[in-house]
């Protein structure tokens, strides 16, 4: 999706409200342009003649004009604002859906940058409807003013008809610069937001290693860069405002001077002079509005470009539409798989198997997890889930079949109970995960990311949540790195009991966990170098024994 497509789609999605809003706002601007005309008619037909009947008709006409003015603005603005708010909401939902897509995304953006795009950029991109609506209404005002001036005096009308487009073109000349600087400013804001998010989430660690001052300096530099970008964008906005005001003032002075000369020579009446001067003065308002609309559209284009880059980013995982998972086939089969540091790796996990995997190199574990999660589209070899090629499986079927729980657990604001997503079986899975101490605290409030909990508590809650999901194949990555030896033993026993009859793959170096597995696969230099029971390997393989025994 391109920037232009996103902006055009925004207008199409709310075309009913947009058509109503534009028409009514245009009516408002047309009636505003008609006010100087009505005053001129009032002077020539009523004041100059001294007749009562034309006076009454002119008063009635003014009442109608101002009634339309007040109601048209309220109605039109309400429709456009509703369209903007609905579009902002829809864009935020789209960004959230894209970010939470289980296939992942290749945006390369950090959480803080994505947050900035989902909030600030979504709101600014939706403002394209404000720019279009007020810009169209301003053009209507200029057309009505120009026609009225032509009816009074053709040379005056032509002067305005020629002068106004030149004025608008002069204003638009600054739009590309404004778009670039606005885009730079929004990118700087997003980067600073991302940095702030990272620093807040890692504040405890930073304090622990005494790096909080360096982090503060880094944030200060990022904030200062954002300030400079914001000031550059603001200076361009100010330049455009100044140019708009100066040029519209010059146009007003020229039209007023010429019309005054015509009135002195009797070419136009006093009422027509008032109309011409009033219209010339009024023209400054729609011209300024066009300048503002240009700024809004430039800002919308910059934000839409960032939104489009996220929405059109390709997924990390390649998935298909097949729903065939054969229960009689091995749940997971890797045939000569190469990816990252893995080299022609083969592994079979049958229904009911519990397999421990020890990777001497952590890079092998990361590569294996990426392959199983379907986030390694460039891998060589074949990956089968229930007898079906992983890339051909529907993503929902894949996620229901294979659940991968990494050791970094994501928790959300709420309570422990709400983070476990269920009410039944909570005590059982918490006990199995070695988190029985948290059973009495299920209704304990949690801050964002569960920062009040220890690393071990977060890890055990993540394991409990995975056990509660009860997937056919559960893949765990170092589920006990943040717990003590006693809790680790309880966790290993609980996991083995909870997963009886279900398939489990655990990437770990924990002897407690490896000892509860049906077999252990050892990977070194990207290939399987040993396979067997934990006790057998610990007795016969010195390298294995050194890696796992503590």
From TrEMBL:
InterPro entries named in the record: ABC1_TM_dom, ABC1_TM_sf, ABC_transporter-like_ATP-bd, ABC_transporter-like_CS, P-loop_NTPase, Type_1_exporter
This protein's record includes keyword Ion transport: no
Record's GO cellular component terms: plasma membrane
Chain ranges of the ABC transmembrane type-1 domain: 19-299
PROSITE patterns (UniProt xref): ABC_TM1F, ABC_TRANSPORTER_1, ABC_TRANSPORTER_2
Topology relative to the membrane: Multi-pass membrane protein
CDD domains: ABC_6TM_exporters (cd07346)
Protein name listed in UniProt: Putative ABC transport system ATP-binding protein
Native source species: Kribbella shirazensis
């Amino acid at each position: 999706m391109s920037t232009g497509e996103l902006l055009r789609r925004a207008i199409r999605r709310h075309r009913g409200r947009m058509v109503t809003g534009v028409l009514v706002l245009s009516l408002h601007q047309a009636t505003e342009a008609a006010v100087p005309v009505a005053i001129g008619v009032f002077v020539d037909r009523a004041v100059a003649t001294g007749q009562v009947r034309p006076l009454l008709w002119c008063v009635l006409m003014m009442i109608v004009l101002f009634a339309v003015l007040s109601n048209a603005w309220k109605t039109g603005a309400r429709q456009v604002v509703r369209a903007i708010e609905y579009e902002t909401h829809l864009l935020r939902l789209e960004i959230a859906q894209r970010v939470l897509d289980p296939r992942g995304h290749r945006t390369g953006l950090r959480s803080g940058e994505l947050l900035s795009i989902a909030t600030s950029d979504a709101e600014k991109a939706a403002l394209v409807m404000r720019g279009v609506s007020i810009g169209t209404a301003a053009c209507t005002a200029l057309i009505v003013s120009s026609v009225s001036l032509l009816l009074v005096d053709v040379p005056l009308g032509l002067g305005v008809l020629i002068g106004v487009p030149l004025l608008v073109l002069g204003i638009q000349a600054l739009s590309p610069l404004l778009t670039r600087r606005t885009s730079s400013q929004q990118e700087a804001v997003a980067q600073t937001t991302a940095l702030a998010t990272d620093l807040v989430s890692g504040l405890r660690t930073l304090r622990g290693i005494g790096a909080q001052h360096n982090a503060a300096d880094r944030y200060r530099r990022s904030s200062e860069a954002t300030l400079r970008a914001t000031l550059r964008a603001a200076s361009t906005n100010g330049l455009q405002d100044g140019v708009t005001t100066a040029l519209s003032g010059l146009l007003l002075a020229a039209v007023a001077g010429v019309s005054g000369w015509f009135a002195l020579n009797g070419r136009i009446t006093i009422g027509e002079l008032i109309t011409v001067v009033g219209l010339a003065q009024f023209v400054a308002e729609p011209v300024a509005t066009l300048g503002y609309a240009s700024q809004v559209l430039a800002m919308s284009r910059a934000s839409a470009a960032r939104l489009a880059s996220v929405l059109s980013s390709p997924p990390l995982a390649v998935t298909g539409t097949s729903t065939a998972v054969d229960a009689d086939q091995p749940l997971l089969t890797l045939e000569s798989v190469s990816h990252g540091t893995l080299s022609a790796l083969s592994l079979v996990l049958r229904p009911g198997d519990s397999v421990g995997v020890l990777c001497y190199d952590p890079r092998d574990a990361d590569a294996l997890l990426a392959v199983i999660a379907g986030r390694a589209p460039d891998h060589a070899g074949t990956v089968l889930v229930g007898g079906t090629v992983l890339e051909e499986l529907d993503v929902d079927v894949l996620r229901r079949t294979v659940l991968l729980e990494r050791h970094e657990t994501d928790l959300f604001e709420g309570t422990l109970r709400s983070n476990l997503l269920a009410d039944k079986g909570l005590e059982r899975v918490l006990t199995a995960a070695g988190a029985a101490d948290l059973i009495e605290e299920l209704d304990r409030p949690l801050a964002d990311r569960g920062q009040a909990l220890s690393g071990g508590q977060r890890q055990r809650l993540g394991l409990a949540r995975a056990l509660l999901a009860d997937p056919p194949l559960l893949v765990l990555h170092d589920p006990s790195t943040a717990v003590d030896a006693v809790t680790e033993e309880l966790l290993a026993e609980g996991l083995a009991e909870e997963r009886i009859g279900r398939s489990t793959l655990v990437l770990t170096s924990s002897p407690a966990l490896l000892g509860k597995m049906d077999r252990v696969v050892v990977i070194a230099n990207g290939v399987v170098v040993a396979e067997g029971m934990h006790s057998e390997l610990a007795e016969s393989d010195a390298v294995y024994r050194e890696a796992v025994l503590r």
